[in-house]
Design brief:
Serine Threonine Protein Phosphatase 5, Tetratricopeptide repeat; Immunoglobulin-like; six-stranded mixed sheet; 7 helices; elongated
């Protein structure tokens, strides 16, 4: 009895799974003809309960199927064979009512016709217990076979999954081992890269306006050949470029060095003319391994600018003057930089209260605005040049007035101009 109950439960579960899958959208994957063939084959194998199950599925999912007539007859015959006389009679009756002109009526067995007549007379149709038991046994045996097959497939699936997991685990272990070996080899390779960069800056300050060089040596002190990517970091206006010694037109940004080999080159720079004397900035050379971007070497030096530092001082021979007084107006041009100043043009704009009388020792030109133009060929470092002018204070100059003038110095070689205010401290005193 317990085995019978279990079989019934399994059948119900199977039906539930079938109907659930159908109703959840899987009906698109089956058709009524396929289901009917399954039911027919089950009938041929005397699995009548499965036949009825398949037929019920077909009717439920495909209620308008053209196979409905043969399906009802197959239910009737399977019900008769499985001992369910009432279901057999009801199925034949339903077939007859729905298909009164169907020629299959002639194929209905006498046993079924007898059951229909008895049912129509109101007789209670008892089930055939022996046939029911036989049908349930066939169904139970099938379910047992299916369960065994399913368990076998599941075991095979589990075995395959386990084998695949083991295979993947072995692959992972091998990959991890190879990665450890790679990292170790990479660490050793990085440790063996030894690059020395030497920058020579013994020439002193670098003059403005002309190209200069900073000698450099890069040595591979490791035990294997190395390829390096080279960059120069310096003020953009320097236009710094790394070249090989003796090859000023060959820029070097990538370098291959054998073990123990030394590269000799220079960093070419040109100090801009606007740089002031003594200006300091860093110039650095970076060498990065072409193979390992995190392995880098660097050296730096301080680049000092050398330039003229010209100043002009202009003043009268004495700090206080009287209207109408004649005296000397002195202009001193001095260079306190570290480079000689050459090709200077000195433009003197006298205070408006002073008239120019002449000069005895220095050639000059007079511009349309009254400015006096003097040429100075050279002022060496730490030297000065004097320009002496004869001038006269105008008679109408008011007492207490401060006289102001201007001196402009233009460095022709560096294309640079500077202006200086003059005689700001001179005061006119009243005439006696």
């Amino acid at each position: 009895m317990n085995s019978l109950i279990k079989s019934v439960i399994l059948v119900v579960m199977a039906l539930f799974m079938v109907f659930t899958s159908v109703l959840s959208g899987q009906s698109a994957e089956i058709d009524d003809s396929t289901v009917f063939v399954e039911a027919f084959n089950a009938y041929q194998q005397k699995d009548y309960l499965l036949t009825i199950e398949k037929c019920d599925q077909l009717i439920q999912v495909f209620p308008e199927s053209p196979l409905r007539d043969v399906t009802l007859l197959l239910i009737a015959r399977a019900s008769l064979k499985s001992g369910d006389n009432l279901r057999a009679a009801e199925s034949v009756t339903l077939f007859t009512n729905e298909f009164p002109e169907n020629r299959l009526k002639a194929s209905v067995e006498n046993e079924l016709k007898v059951l229909v007549n008895r049912h129509q007379k109101g007789e209670v149709l008892a089930a055939d217990k022996s046939l029911q038991a036989a049908a349930k046994k066939v169904s139970s045996d099938r379910i047992a076979r299916e369960r065994a097959a399913a368990e076998k497939l599941e075991m095979e699936r589990i075995a395959k999954v386990k084998a695949e997991q083991e295979r993947l685990a072995k692959i992972k272990l091998e990959e991890e081992r190879l990665e450890r070996e790679r990292l170790l080899a990479e660490k050793l390779a990085k440790a063996n890269i030894k690059i020395a960069i030497s920058l020579s800056n013994e020439a002193g300050p670098y003059p403005v306006g002309i190209s200069s060089t900073v000698p450099i040596e890069i040595t591979n002190k490791g035990n294997s050949s190395e390829e390096l990517l080279l960059t120069i970091n310096a003020a953009k206006e320097y236009g710094a470029v790394l070249t090989r010694s003796g090859r000023p037109d060959e820029s070097v940004t990538r370098l291959q060095l054998a073990a123990g080999e030394t590269f000799k080159g220079v960093v070419q720079i040109k100090m801009p003319t606007e740089m002031v004397d003594g200006h300091r900035s860093l110039l650095s050379v970076h060498a990065v391994s072409a193979k390992f971007s995190d392995v880098a070497f660097r050296n730096e030096t301080v680049v000092i600018c050398s330039a003229p530092l010209v100043r002009a001082v202009a003043k009268l021979a004495k700090p206080k003057v009287a209207p109408g007084e004649q005296l000397s107006y002195r202009v001193a041009v001095l260079n306190v930089g570290s480079q000689s100043a050459e090709s200077l043009t000195v433009r003197v704009q006298l205070p408006s209260e002073i008239d120019f009388q002449g000069t005895s020792d220095t050639p000059f030109k007079r511009e349309s605005n009254g400015a006096l133009l003097f040429k100075v060929d050279k002022v060496d470092v730490g030297q000065l040049v004097h320009i002496n002018l004869d001038v006269k204070v105008r008679e109408n100059t008011a007492a207490g007035q401060v006289l102001r003038g201007e001196v402009e110095v233009e460095n022709g070689g560096l294309q640079k101009k500077e202006r200086f205010t003059a005689t700001a401290s001179v005061v006119v005193i009243p005439a006696k």
